[in-house]
Design brief:
The chain is of the alpha/beta class and 279 residues long. The chain is 39% helix and 14% strand. Bound molecules: S-adenosylmethionine.
């Protein structure tokens, strides 16, 4: 990617989690600093690209599940650089009237999403920070986003592989503010790497790499991840290892799921779940 083209708001010498993730997935929207940082992560944790692919596969399965459950609107926070099988492609492929708002703190990710969505009146992308839920909700109530998302109707709130970039109690409050703002019938979708499964030394090395980005992170335990569903009822099979969440044998997942037959699902080191808001 040509840094000149994107140079408006960003420093290409500071690695970004969004662009490192793009590199893990084989994308081209990353700079040398991102690639170098991503390679250091792979050195410490060789399964990093596998984790990214398995996570994308979970995201697609969860979106299909929600559309099948009647959800037609999606708020994808920490959406990342668009890649193959984006939320609007999955949802609108099933129902062309499905609505999607992408949110990310990374201007490159959002700029690329905006280009991809040009001419798509049912999807848009905005730069915002999950840690500022009031500002985010305010943005969603403005004309451009209100035309896409109707907050009085059910929404699929996606916080997939992003909450570990936001350690601390404040993240629970921010996520709760968003869950509370949604209508009954809404769902929350979370995946999160957990300390229960990731080698402590590898985790320390990986955290050191991410400390150089704008979004340094940290792991949580499974019980801590469960708190992101407070007030929502987990749908079966509950909070499980990513490959175990309603696996299917669709061709687009086969390439992304762990190809090794009988591989330990803990290898992915990440748990995932979907919770629904009743009442
Ligand atoms: C690993 S990517 C995940 C992308 C996508 N959700 C997926 O699962 O494929 C994490 C994303 O979270 C974004 N992010 C980190 N902190 C954020 C924040 N406070 N608000 C919004 N997005 C954030 C990063 O910029 C990055 O694009």
């Amino acid at each position: 990617m040509d840094p000149e083209y994107w140079a408006r708001d960003i420093d290409p010498n500071v690695p970004s989690a969004a662009r490192m993730y793009d590199y893990f997935l084989g994308g081209s929207h990353n700079f040398e600093a991102d690639r170098e940082a991503a390679r250091r992560v792979i050195e410490a944790m060789p399964q990093a690209p596998l984790i990214a692919r398995a996570n994308r596969s979970f995201l697609r399965r969860a979106v299909r599940f929600l559309v099948a459950s009647g959800v037609r609107q999606f708020l994808d926070i920490g959406s990342g650089v668009p890649t193959v099988g984006n939320v609007h492609e999955i949802a609108q492929g099933l129902d062309p009237d499905a609505r999607v708002v992408y949110v990310d703190i990374d201007p490159v990710a959002i700029s690329h999403a905006q280009q991809l969505l040009e001419g798509n009146t049912r999807a848009t992308a905005i730069v915002a920070d999950l840690r500022r839920p009031a500002e985010l909700l305010d943005l969603l109530r403005r004309a451009r986003t209100r035309a896409v998302l109707d907050l009085s109707r059910p929404v699929g709130l996606l916080m997939v592989s992003m909450l570990h970039f936001l350690p601390g109690e404040g993240t629970y409050r921010a996520a709760a503010a968003l869950r509370d703002a949604l209508a009954p019938g809404s769902h929350v979708v979370v995946s999160h790497p957990v300390s229960d499964a990731i080698d402590a030394r590898a985790a320390t090395e990986v955290e050191a790499v991410y400390r150089r980005t704008a979004t340094p992170g940290g792991l949580r335990t499974r019980a801590e991840v469960q708190r992101f569903f407070d007030g929502y009822a987990l749908v079966p099979p509950g909070l499980v290892w990513v490959p175990e969440w309603r696996p299917d044998d669709r061709a687009d997942n086969a390439a992304d799921d762990d190809g090794e037959p009988g591989a330990d699902p803990r290898r992915v080191g990440m748990v995932a779940g979907v919770g629904g808001k009743t009442g």
